[in-house]
Amino acid sequence: MASLTPKSGVLGRRLATHLLRRTTFHFTRLRIDQIAAMTPDQAVEDLMNIPPVTISEPIDPQTGQPWINSGAAAGSLTGLLRDYVKSWWINEARLDPSIGHKMMLFLHSSFVVAATEGTAEEYFDYLALLRFYALGSYKTLARKMTLDNQMLRYLDNTQNNRNSPNENYAREFLELFTIGKGPQAGPGDYTNYTEEDIVQAAKLLSGFKVRANRVDIDPDTGIPMGYANRNQHNFDDKTFSSAFQNQMIAGKTTAEGMFEELEEFVTMIFGQSATAKTLSRKLYRFFVSPNITAEIESDVIEPMAQTLLSNNYELMPVMKLLLKSEHFYDADDNDSQDEIIGGLMKSPLELVLHTMSYFEVTVPDPISDPQNHYFKFYTQGLVRAFLPLAGMDIFKPSDVAGYPAYYQEPDYQRNWFNSSTIVARYQLPEMLIKGKRLLYNQTLGAKLDIVEYVSTHISDPANASILVQELIDDLLPEGTDPDRYAYYRDVTFLDGIPLYDWTADWQNFLLSGDDAEVRPPLESLLTSLLYSQEFQAM
Predict the structure, then answer these.
(1) CA 475 to CA 483: how far, in whole Å?
(2) 3-class DSSP state of 194
(3) d(Cα 490, Cα 493) in Å, to the nearest integer?
(4) Closest by alpha carbon to 237, among 248, 253, 246?
(5) Is 204 exposed, middle or buried (0-12, 13-18, 19+ CB in 10 A)?
(6) Contacts of 324 (CB under 8 A, 6+ apart)
(7) Alpha-carbon distance 433 to 510, whole Å?
């Protein structure tokens, strides 16, 4: 049976790589070594320590200065500034050894906005809100998100007025962000809420507006937010359906009262067990597996939901429960290689950042070389080329439901693969090895140097067997069988030459510094491993 019983013992490399792939974008050999020596309890506690960002805000290459909170004017156009915010976030994700940025991506997939709405500053504030609550209360975040300027624009709640209601945000708040629909029970009745509940929610949410100059600061987070306009709020009492025990929230006539109504509304929704179960299923599908059986529902989802309810929807306790469990490590049945480890497909973001961080690809410095860092490498190379072509236009999903891989039944993670996106995924090795942008013969601004990496990270690079085995152990979730290993070593790497020839070639390289004989086989091996089905999984 599925078990949330804490797993004991030291993790070792296989389970350490599994934990790191699922919880962080910073997947390095050093980090694997550190986590492998820990117990699950120690490793997860370590991952929960979210460090400060390395750079507090992005820099505009046009001016060489930050502009968001400094009061300095930006020199670039709005579209580029938004991409520089994305670039800053992706670079911070690459460097973050904790679960912080993975949780931010999860929260973004739950409270979806598109970066193209509003200003770069509002987008930065939205990311700051996700970071603030990365391991905090999902319930509190749901309330704070209602006043987020980016969200107010994206789902039109800034246009929701007492005499001209707009139901967009109210509908998505119930359907996608919190309680979820549930089975259709009748016309306009989705079990967990009704169409009339949307009408009432829209009335309650009326009058919350965008504050474009960012002067309203949330006292709890220090992040700019929208404001409450009492003159455009619906003062009527709001009575909800039997799905919410026919609760009535009394209408208020002041701006302070609007916040009181919002608090009552959020408390009502998060008081339902269905909300806790919906969030638990989202977390499970994002971090563990899309396959929720009756057994998983009973033995994993329900205890997770109870943990959320008992802790005011704080995310840290439920994440600890899940990530420390025997079930997460596929150790709760007799077959430890049947469903969990290697059971998810890497998103394009995980694919590129795991590769970059593992092989220690050096990107241009954001302070001393912002043009190549923000514009050439991240904006042109990843944000506008690789990620969209691979099916993940980061922070710009196709609709408010988010990225299909995280919600669309029955395929879920397999949605990352189709006839269009697979080409970009399989061009990743070439892009990094050559340092060229996809579809363009232009420099990327960074390259993967496999010779340098092997020289400094493989225990015995002159030994072809050890070299291949160590890369397989780290890069492929479940390793490989003897025939597949022989293919990587003898065909793609050695190309039929004897083992001792590689040893001689490596020793000649160490003496001469000329890598002409060792670079091609190493690049061939790297490409083959990164092309493999196993590497696409995590």
Answers:
(1) 17
(2) strand
(3) 6
(4) 248
(5) buried
(6) 6, 7, 40, 41, 44
(7) 21
- How far is 230 from 251, CA to CA, in rounded Å? 11
Position 488, amino acid: Y
Peptide bond between residue 410 and the one before it cis (omega within 30 degrees of 0): yes
Nearest-angstrom CA–CA distance, 275 and 305: 8
Tokens standing for 7?
A: 């797993």
One-letter amino acid at 500 equals Y
CA distance 57 to 69: 8
- Taking all residues of the chain, what is their mean pLDDT, rounded to a whole number? 95
Question: What tens digit of pLDDT does each residue of 84-140 get?
Answer: 999 999 999 999 999 999 999 999 999 999 989 899 999 999 999 999 999 999 999
Closest CA to 405 of 425, 419, 391: 391
Residue type, 479: G
* Other beta carbons within 10 Å of 75: 14
**Whole-number Å distance between alpha carbons of 27 and 364:** 19
Q: Is 19 exposed, middle or buried (0-12, 13-18, 19+ CB in 10 A)?
A: buried
523: left (phi over 0), alpha (psi -120 to 50) or beta: alpha
Name the one residue in this structure whose structure tokens are 């004017």. 73
Q: Helices H, strands E: what count in the chain?
A: 27, 6
Contact 370, 87 (CB under 8 A): no
* Phi/psi at 226 (5° precision): -75, -165
Q: Could you tell me the two tokens for 300?
A: 């994993």
Residue 360 has pLDDT above 80, yes or no: yes
Strand 208-209 to strand 238-239: parallel, antiparallel, or no bridges (unpaired)?
unpaired
**Residue 366, CB-side half-sphere exposure with 13 Å CA sphere:** 21
pTM: 0.96
Which amino acid is it at 288?
V
How many residues appear in the chain? 538
Residue located via tokens 């003897």: 482
pLDDT in tens, 306-338: 999 999 999 999 999 999 999 999 998 766 555
Write down the pLDDT at residue 477: 94
